[in-house]
Amino acid sequence: MVEIVFESIYKEIFPFWETIPDTDREYICRNSYRVAYPKGKNIHDGAECSGVILVCSGSLRLYIMSDEGKEITLYRLHRGDLCMLSASCVLDAITFEVFVDAEEDSECCVVSGPAFAAVSGRNPDVHIFALETAVSRFSDVMWVMQQIYFAQRVFSFYLLAVYHILLTVSVTKSHTAGTVFTWCHAIRSTKNFSKVSAI
After folding, report:
1. Which of 26, 109, 137, 150 stands 20 to 30 A from 11 (CA)?
2. Is the CB of residue 52 less than 8 Å from the CB of residue 90?
3. Does pTM surpass 0.90?
4. Which residues contact 106 (CB under 8 A, 6 or more apart)?
5. 111, burial (CB in 10 Å: exposed 0-12, middle 13-18, buried 19+)
6. Are residues 99 and 41 in contact, defined by beta-carbon separation less than 8 angstroms?
7. Is 55 helix (H, G, I), strand (E, B) or coil?
């Protein structure tokens, strides 16, 4: 009964579904489960092959960690979206660690990573679909990376500008001090001369 439910879902989601053997369709369904994730729950920590995740309700957030330990959001998944980057055993080319959290209470269908990888290895259509699904999200990833790179360049520019300003102030400090002293002395002298009606 459970397998029938999954098959009706996957028939609408996977374009390769009708082209693979019945045994592989059954294998995917047998290795699928439905799970509810509460808001804030970490679903994938990048260290293992968590599987292919289909969002049935709610939303998921995919992110990476910077060298400083800060979270950098790559993109979000909503109802009907597939998360393929959580199945690193399916896509050997994915070498960076991606984290997935439930951004709100979510319900998902999850296909076991090893099971999907096995079917992918036997069926080129499945492997192509996995690659295309992952690549379709790389434009979002690249946009985020470009923003980070631009922000770093802007920060470096301002940091360099501040450095040059401080350097200039340091070099001319004595000259500036001398100039200020000269002007102050001249103002005081002018006031003194005014008092004695010299001017």
Report:
1. 137
2. yes
3. no
4. 36, 37, 39, 55, 56, 57, 58, 59, 60
5. buried
6. no
7. strand
